[in-house]
Amino acid sequence: MEMCLSGERISAEEAEKAGLVSKVFPPEELVDEAIKLADKICRHSKLTVAICKEAINTSFELTLKEGLHFEKRLFHATFSTEDRKEGMTAFMDKRPANFTDS
């Protein structure tokens, strides 16, 4: 609240310590690191990534109890997807998953 009300700026390191950002990189490494993260995310099922984003974004507007219930409903909805079956099979077979986004 102090930062919002005072308008004082903080460093990237302070933002990381406060949990406002998840990682801090030197400017010359930033784009490469962002691309690495994007590459990692895009290897997952697009459907599941979208569901995760929906759960997180919606949780900001719900109570903890409501948010957990919403997340559980979305999780159960993934059980009917081919990507859930592929992900679990790939895990059991110790191989990379081949998601079809369905």
Please give a structural write-up.
The structure is a single chain. With 102 residues, this protein is mostly helical. It is built from 6 helices and no strands. The longest helix is centred in the middle third of the chain and has 16 residues. The radius of gyration is 18 Å and the shape is flat. The protein starts with a helix and ends in a 9-residue tail after the last helix. The mean pLDDT is 94.
Q: Say what oligomer this is.
A: single chain
Parts with pLDDT < 50 across at least 5 consecutive residues: none
Distance between the termini: 42 Å
Structural class: mainly alpha
Q: In one word, what is the shape?
A: flat
Largest sheet: none
A few lines on this structure:
The chain is an all-alpha fold.
Question: Any chance you could write out the topology, listing elements then pairs?
Answer:
Layout (H helix, E strand, L loop, with lengths): L1 H5 L5 H6 L9 H16 L3 H14 L4 H14 L4 H12 L9
Helix pairs in contact: 4-5
